[in-house]
Design goal:
This protein is an alpha/beta fold. It has five helices and eleven strands. Helix content is about 25%, strand content about 25%.
Length: about 230
């Protein structure tokens, strides 16, 4: 297979390296990722300025744009033969309504709009402790081995969220589940510099059986997302 990977954490992110290594047994991997972190940028693209592409290593390229920009430039200029686009592994969950704000998810949404099947991968973090990337890589390989056989139809993509290892007991179950429609807690603190968001990600509402509940319960949440919904 020919696979292109990207992310919203930037070209130097550890999760990106983990994804690249996890994919290597399945074929050729080309990376086109942002030069810097672009978390929360959603589906923003740049149309009014040139986008600079630079080589960051063998088959690795950095673009001074958003994840969606990376997919557009990658599929049209760098790797037009791509069979799959994968984004991640994001350092933090992309669950429920996060999919509307996430640059990681926007990258795979853009790929589906361009006709290429795609998968977003994220690692939920319950605390700010370092991510166990070795375990994350093992779980990525396990779930991808299933999804290669379940190619999404046009304008559909897979969204995968790995649980925090502190929530798991042995090998976490893979659960196919819907995206939770409930909104994040909206809470702001007024400071001398303005309003600072103080909502708690872990305290967000959980619809039983939806992706937030599944992932927070220590299981791998796999959701099939259709765009437009």
């Amino acid at each position: 297979m020919h696979m292109m990977v990207t992310n919203d954490d930037g070209i130097d992110a550890e999760g990106l390296r983990v994804l690249e290594a996890s994919l290597s047994p399945w074929g050729q991997v080309v990376t086109v990722a942002p030069t810097q972190e672009m978390s929360g940028c959603s589906h923003q693209v740049h149309l009014g300025r040139p986008l600079k592409l630079s080589e960051a290593g063998p088959q690795r390229f950095a673009l001074d744009g958003t994840p969606a920009d990376c997919v557009r430039v990658g599929l049209t200029q760098v790797a037009p033969q791509t069979d799959w686009v994968l984004a991640g592994v994001n350092c933090g969950g992309n669950l429920g309504v996060d999919i509307h704000m996430s640059g990681t998810v926007a990258a795979v949404r853009e790929a589906t709009l361009l006709g290429v099947p795609a998968i977003a991968l994220s690692q939920f973090r319950r605390t700010r402790a370092d991510v166990d990337w070795e375990t994350a890589g093992r779980l990525v390989r396990r779930v991808l081995a299933e999804l290669w056989q379940r190619r999404p139809r046009g304008h559909e993509f897979w969204n995968i969220n790995l649980p925090d290892v502190v929530d798991t007991n042995g090998e976490p179950e893979v659960v196919y589940c819907p995206c939770d429609p409930q909104h994040l807690i909206v809470d702001y603190e007024e400071t001398a510099d303005g309003f600072r968001y103080r909502g708690s990600y872990q305290a967000r509402p959980r619809t039983p059986g939806a992706d937030v509940d599944v992932c927070f319960s220590g299981k791998i949440a796999v959701s099939l997302i259709r765009w437009p919904g």
